[in-house]
Specification:
Elements (H helix, E strand, L loop, with lengths): L6 E2 L4 E13 L2 E20 L5 E15 L4 E15 L4 E15 L5 E16 L12 E12 L1
Antiparallel strand pairs: 1-3, 2-3, 3-4, 4-5, 5-6, 6-7, 7-8
């Protein structure tokens, strides 16, 4: 049975694409080319009767880069998992976890390498002065981790 104190809003959905120049790309520092990126976002907002507000969602990315030498990069699994929880007493918890697996292709279209990115960013703070932003002394947990693997 659904909790009658919870109010759910419809899942937000957005999708947009952009094209932009690339000069150097992770494992390919000398590569120059053009990237096409499409981002699709889904998620759900939940507000409880006690005023706790939460968002959980996924940003999925489709990335293709064509380099001047004919080689390219194509994303496979490429997503950011996002979670935010806001408490009316000023407590905020946010986490973003990133998984990005890409394949490098030579000018003939043969797979010649892989790029793997795994990252996580987390923060917990209590907004003691209720100004809506973390100030000195309010952050209780914060860390960022980033791992890049080229094969």
């Amino acid at each position: 049975m659904r909790n009658p104190r919870r109010r759910r809003t419809p899942r937000p959905w957005s999708c947009h694409s952009e094209v932009f120049p690339v000069e150097g790309y992770f494992c390919l520092p000398d590569a120059v080319g053009t990237a096409t990126l499409t981002e699709t976002s889904t998620g759900q907002f939940v507000e409880t009767g006690s005023g706790v507000f939460a968002f959980h969602g996924v940003d999925a990315f489709d990335l293709h880069i064509d380099f001047a030498d004919g080689s390219s990069v194509q994303s496979g699994l490429d997503r950011d998992v996002v979670s935010f929880v806001f408490n009316p007493r000023g407590r905020t918890v946010s986490t973003v976890a990133i998984q990005d697996l890409e394949t490098i292709y030579d000018a003939q279209g043969q797979a010649v390498g892989r790029i793997a990115i795994h990252a996580v960013s987390h923060a917990t703070y209590t907004d003691l002065n209720l100004n809506g932003q973390p100030d000195d002394g309010e952050v209780t947990v914060q860390f960022d981790r980033f791992r890049l693997r080229c094969a």
